Amino acid sequence: MEWYTTLILMMGFICGLMTFGLPIAFAFFLTNTLGAYYFMGGGVGIETVVRGSMSSIANFSLAPIVLFLLIGEILLRSGLAFRSVDAIDQAIRRVPGRLSVVAVVGGTVFSALSGSTIATTAMLGQSLVPNMLRRGYHPTMATGPVMAIGGVDMLIPPSNLTVVFATIVSSVSVVKISVAALLIAGILPGLIMAAGFIAYIVIRCWLNPKLAPVATDDHPPARGRWLPLLTDVAPLIAIFVAMMGSMFAGWASPTDSAAIGAIATLLLAAAFRCLSVSMILESLKATAVVTTMLFFIIAGSTTFAQILAISGATDGALAALTKLDLGPMTAVLAMIGVILILGCFMEQIAMMLLTLPFFVPLANALNIDMLWLGLILLISLQVGLMTPPFGMLLFVMRGVAPREITTRQIWASIVPFVLIVFAVLALILMVPWVATGISARM
Fold it and tell me: Angle at Cα 125 formed by Cα 122 and Cα 126, nearest 5°?
């Protein structure tokens, strides 16, 4: 069987199963089973797939995923995340589009400690969007910033998708990518992106105050405005600094730093007297559910890449691309284009599973810096989170937003923020130091 026939059948079968509503993990496992039976010798091949799947998740480098998720669940269920958002709200009362800015700043703080993009969007959507609407905010100014900061969550460490990305890259390539380096590389672009979101909100609301009317409630004294930043936000930032600082200094691995963050978060919850056995159990249960899903997906992706390699599809596609004599920048732009197209109708992890087995070998053949490319691809995947009509965060917002907000308004609200993301992506393409400068100091 020709390589392109194998590739079309394998990828087409997966896409077809997902189109009919089968979860990503099961779509990959069913495809892998059939592929292993055909290309790897029947029952022996299936046994090989099972062993390979088990070994792919018996990987210590995946431990940060569990701990990052646990940190986010504790912050959410203990109420510490809501306290930080309220503190930021008190501090910036006179800023145009104040609550929209709170969504960005508060979401950035929460993103610095939570690995769950959905959790960030759901939390801010439930707590801020109804309040914005009651204060007369336009629906697009209420929903857009909340979804935008959910995308920044992919870049501000800790990020589960970053860990998954690095794991998949290492499984399909002899060239490894450091999880710690990729996590730290996302800090500067994430902060630049958040700053761009804030600048857009402030300027837009200053030019058109009707989008975000000024609050008429009583203004607390200066101490009442700024003290909550010290008591409710500073401790969260201190946890982030401890986690990232230990990695940056080389004192701790990503797993060690995640453990430090989890312990510090538990101690902080205890200090605020919001730690309980029921809260811990709920957090552990939610963490286990998401972790199981992610590990199933990782296991399926590793086996899928192995079957493509054994069938000759990977080598055939790589040879065909090499014949096109693409330069490094042209190849990167082509990768971005493929991800942006897939992002219109496919979930982020599914895109990684389908594309990285081809992108990574091509990048190695063209001597492309994998750290730089990794961050570019992560940002491109982030756009998929927000791209109508099937971006994941659009569905999350549709689920938590009041019914009077239409789906069309949700789609329209995200467009300016997507353009800001593209601007940051262009900056990284033109100035690679933005992506690699901090990690190069490790």
Answer: 85
Specify the pLDDT at position 318. Answer: 66
Q: Is the pTM of the predicted complex or chain greater than 0.85?
A: no
Token pair for residue 315?
A: 């080598």
- Between CA 265 and CA 401 the distance in angstroms is 29
Of 99 and 325, the structure prediction assigns the larger pLDDT to 99
Q: Where are the beta strands (DSSP E) in 92-204?
A: none
d(CA 169, CA 356): 7
Distance, CA of 430 to CA of 326 (rounded, Å):
18
The Cα 65–Cα 133 span in angstroms is 35
3-state secondary structure labels for all residues of 133-148? HHCCCCHHHHHHHHHH
211 CB burial (10 A radius; 0-12, 13-18, 19+): buried
Token pair recorded at residue 245? 């600082």
- Looking at residue 116, its pLDDT comes to 59
Taking residues 375-395, report their average pLDDT: 78
Residue pair 274/317 in contact by the 8 Å Cβ criterion = no
Q: Per-residue pLDDT tens for 1-46?
A: 677 788 788 878 877 876 777 776 777 778 888 888 887 777 777 7
Q: Are 46 and 85 in contact (CB under 8 A)?
A: no
Write the single-letter amino acid at 61: S
CA dist 227 and 233 (Å) reads: 10
User: Contact, 247 vs 180, CB < 8 A?
Assistant: yes
Task: Rank 28-32, 59-63, 100-104, 381-385 by mean pLDDT and report only the highest.
Answer: 100-104
CB 201 within 8 A of CB 145: yes
Residues 6+ apart with CB under 8 A from 415: none
Q: How confident is the model at residue 61 (pLDDT cuts 50, 70, 90)?
A: low
Question: 373 is written with which tokens?
Answer: 């490319």
Q: Are 386 and 393 in contact (CB under 8 A)?
A: yes
Residue 354 structure tokens: 């389908």
CA 316 to chain CA centroid, nearest Å: 31
